[in-house]
Amino acid sequence: MDFWNITENFLWKDSKHVLGIKSLLLHNIKPCLSHLFQNGKFYKKKLFIADVQKDQIIVDMKAGNWSSLATGKSGDVISLWARITGQAKLSKVINSISEWLNVEIFTYFDESREDIIYVYFYNTNCCYTWNSKTCSSDISFPKPLFNIPEIIESERVVVVKGEKCAKRLMHQCITATTVMFGTDKSIDETDFSLLNGKQVIIWPDNNEAGKQYAEKIANKLSHCSILNIPEGKKDGWNAIDAIAEGIDINQLLISNNAVAKDNISAFSVKQYLHDKSPIPRDIIFPRILTPGGLLVFGGSPKVGKTDFLISWLTYMSAGIPFFDMVPAKPLKIFYIQTDVGYHYMRERLQQLKIDNKLLNLVESNFAITSGAQLLLDKNNINKVYNTVKQFFNPTEVDIIVIDSLRNVFNYRNENDNDVMYAFLQDRVEKLRSTINSNAGVILTHNINKKLPKENPFQSLSGASSLRNVYTSGMLMLKPIEEKN
């Protein structure tokens, strides 16, 4: 075997997984070298070996790099392993290293399905992490949840203790997650925001530590439930045991009388200070509409609010700027409108003459009701949710449009502050959280004839509480006629 040709063919530097295995091997460099070279001599953080394939080599314990005294050739710890074990293919070298370490690997992905962190469990009870973005073992704060891509696409998420449990449930087609390593310390360092608006069930291990783990996670969530462990189960019984027993997991989750937990969202000052992750991008930049935000779009009756919205949101659904308003991406939009019937709506849309290059995006990302006459009560919120599911995965909806407030307002007096606030919280926010708690809401409303010069938004009809809760506002006005 020509080892030098083998090492020259190891073009693996772009492989995140191989970099992680190499880092793990360096983390265990002394036992690694002792395994490969039983007769080697350690001296001042170096290993000296004589008579290796009629050669003499030195290995740097810190970096894992080796060099040949006889030939002047050199390499890293991966190529050294290949040389000693006689493996010619990189995949076999990595498998050989993994077998020696007895390693089990779990990959963390981000929202774009890009692998960002590798977690290695090895030698029975040891663990190690590799950050593929920073090429280091340091994990940034806050830590991500396991299985992010499936969390985004699912309505129900089961939280367990440890990646092994989560992976076994995933193999049963159950969306599951955990905090990194399944440790209590990781709970305080984890970003749970992706679980907002989901049906979250926490599955504790059947022991006191498992109960404490579940309660601690429950305190981080605004709403969740904790699974009641069936009676008679052994100490430490968990999802892996349930699968081994042949239990129908879906049926257990559905029929189990889980204990509901409701909390307000709160974080330690430590998290606020140390969380250096990027601020969530505006849904529509700059600060026109933010995640979880409310944009009130006011205008006189018949001024053309609906026509403007249709044009504007068509561009947003295609990911194209409109009057310097820039969408973060092609946005998925569900538009509840109560004024325009099907035939007049299709007439207006066809008059837009949408660019053929953008047509596919607009057609797949933008759904509009046809003159739906409904009051926004509990029953109709469920109807809206079921309608949304006909077009989108609800958790992927970016914008919910309600056009107009007055037509869906199911209270008697819109001028009463308490009544208006109750409507916004119990109806509008309920609709948002049912579909996607991170979606932005656009709410259209009429304005009074008299327009205050100092603060035009005071012209919005009804109670002032509406003006106190929106995160951004827009007004559409008729041209002002000049007086002679």
TrEMBL record:
<dbReference type="Pfam" id="PF13155">
    <property type="entry name" value="Toprim_2"/>
</dbReference>
<dbReference type="GO" id="GO:0016787">
    <property type="term" value="F:hydrolase activity"/>
</dbReference>
<keyword id="KW-0378">Hydrolase</keyword>
<protein>
    <submittedName>
        <fullName>P-loop containing nucleoside triphosphate hydrolase,Archaeal primase DnaG/twinkle, TOPRIM domain</fullName>
    </submittedName>
</protein>
<dbReference type="Pfam" id="PF13481">
    <property type="entry name" value="AAA_25"/>
</dbReference>
<dbReference type="InterPro" id="IPR034154">
    <property type="entry name" value="TOPRIM_DnaG/twinkle"/>
</dbReference>
<dbReference type="InterPro" id="IPR027417">
    <property type="entry name" value="P-loop_NTPase"/>
</dbReference>
